[in-house]
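Operator note (shift B, R.M.): manual run for THAP-type domain-containing protein requested after the automated queue skipped it. Running by hand, logging everything below so the morning shift can see what happened. Input copied straight from the record, untouched. If output looks odd, do not overwrite the archive copy; leave it for review.
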Amino acid sequence: SSLLCIYLVFLSCCLYVWLILSDCSACLLERNVVFQKPCLSTANVQDSVSVWHRFPNPKKFMYVFVQWMDCIGNEAVRDMDPITVYNGYRVCHAHFTEEDNYGNNRLRKDAVPSLNLPDQQISNTTDEIRGSSRTESGLMHKVHVTRETHLSPKAKKLYKIASHLSRANRRLRCRRRLIRCTSSTTAVRNEALQQLDSTVATFIKSQITLASSKSWGCRYSLEDKLMGLILHKQSAEGSEERLRPPSLVNWTVTINGIIEIFEMLEQGNVNHLNYRRLNQDPIANFFGQMSQQGLETPIRLVVILKITSKLY
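Run finished. Output pasted below as returned.
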C-alpha cells in the first residue's frame, strides 16, 4: 500500500508538471492581478525566484513585438493596445534559450520566445522575404555559426578583418560603377556638343559646370555673356534697344567731364591729388556701372588713351 501511495504521488507530480509546461506559454497577467499560472506576471507582481522580461517597445521594435505576440498566442492580450501590453505584461525567462541573452538575464534586441510554447502554427515569413542588402552574416554561415558571440577570440578578430575587407570591396565596386556611369555620360554629352557651334557648346558646358555651385558663386566669361546676348537677340523679346546699355549717355558725359578735369589740372600745373578730399562719387559710380556690364577694362583703356593723347 505504501508503494502504491508513493506511485500515485509520483504520477500526480508528473501530471502537475506536464500541466505547467503545457500551459506555460500563456504566462501573462494584467497589472495588479494575482497571477494564477506559474509563467505569467505583471509589472507590479514581485517574484524573487523567476526572471521576467518586458515586451519589446512597439515604438522602436514593432516587428519583434508582433513576433512575441504570435509566439505566446494569448487571446487575452491579442486585441489589446501594444503600449498597454508593453507596460503591463511580462514573459517568463523559461521561454528563451541561452542564445537569447547576454549571460546576465538580459535579452537581446532580436530575441523571441521559442521554448515551452503551445502546439500552434506560428507563421514565419523570414524565409520568404529576401532582402536586397548584403551583410556579413554570410561569412559566419560558411563556418556554420549564427552569432558572433559563438566565435573564439581569434575567430572574432579574423571575422572583423574579413568584414572590414568585405565592406571596402563593396565600396570599391560601387565607386567603379559610378566612374563607368560618369564616363559614359560624359562621352554622350561630348558627342552631342560636337554637333553644336563652338560658342553654344562653351555656354552649355559652363552651365553644366555651374549647376552644382551656389548662385552667388557663379562667374561667367566674356564668351558666356556674348552667348547670352545672342540668345536674347534671336528671341522674340530681344531688340536692339534692349541690348543697348541703359545709361550710355551718362557714361559719355562722365568721360568728357573726366577729360576736362585733367585738362584743368594740366593748365594749373597740378601733378598731385589728395584722393581723400576729392569727391570721387561720379567717377566711382561711372566705373561701378562699367564693372557691372563687364566693360570696366575697355572703358578705362579708352579714358587713359584719351588723356595721354592730350597730355603728351
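Quick read of the result: The two ends are 146 Å apart (CA to CA). Residues 2-100 form one domain.
Leaving this for review. - R.M.
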